[in-house]
């Protein structure tokens, strides 16, 4: 029993020695590990601090960027508002200038009308008289036009009667016609050798007047007016002056010269 205890004691002592030796050998390693752990912890703390600083700087930069963006948006909005306001003011100024020009024109028109009114008043043309004239003017104009038409008919009849009188007084003589007479042949009677013309007394045509008939600038024949009406005439083809057959549509005009009888 004592031997067992002694053995147990020796085992325990040996174990303690082994442990002590182990601790002596492991202590430097443990201290080194502790130092590394401490350094790692310190570096980790520094990394955390640096990370926190970077996050703070990033957040600050983000806030600054957001603030600058807001400032830029506000600036652009303010610029757009200012441009809109400037355009509105410009439009108002243009409208005001237009109204001013219109007012000036109206003023000038009123001045001119006033001057014309006073000029008319000096002539005795007061508003009642002007209104009466304005009322009577269409009627007077119609009467004047009627008189002009009647005068034209009288002149045509006078020309016609004058031609007939000259023809009676000098049945075989030639009559001088107005220069520039131009007409057309509307019908041809080859059997009796006479033609129908589309000009008459209202064009200045006279009985016994002589006319040339041409086609494409070439002389075809010469005719002598036998009968004159208001807007047509009948003419006989003069013997010895017919170079070709006359057709409807041939031109009829005053000869370049007309030989009158002595």
Would you kindly provide a brief summary of this structure?
With 262 residues, this protein is α+β, with helices and mostly antiparallel strands. It contains two helices and six strands, in the order ααββββββ.
What do these coordinates show?
With 262 residues, the protein is α+β, with helices and mostly antiparallel strands. It folds into two domains: 1-123; 156-253, Beta Barrel (Thrombin, subunit H), CATH 2.40.10. The protein has two helices and six strands; from the N terminus they run ααββββββ. The protein has helices at 2-122, 127-169; strands at residues 182-189, 194-197, 210-215, 218-228, 233-237, 251-253. The protein has a six-stranded antiparallel β-barrel with strand order 1-2-5-4-3-6. A hairpin with a 4-residue loop joins β1 and β2 (194-197). The protein is elongated, with a radius of gyration of 65 Å. Residues 257-262 have low confidence and may be disordered.
- Computed structural class: alpha+beta
Element pattern in H and E: HHEEEEEE
How many domains? 2
Radius of gyration: 65 Å
Share of residues in strands: 5-15%
- Proportion of helical residues: 55-70%
Arithmetic mean pLDDT: 78
Query: What would the principal axes of the Cα set say about the shape?
Result: elongated
Q: Tell me the quaternary state.
A: single chain
Low-confidence stretches: 257-262
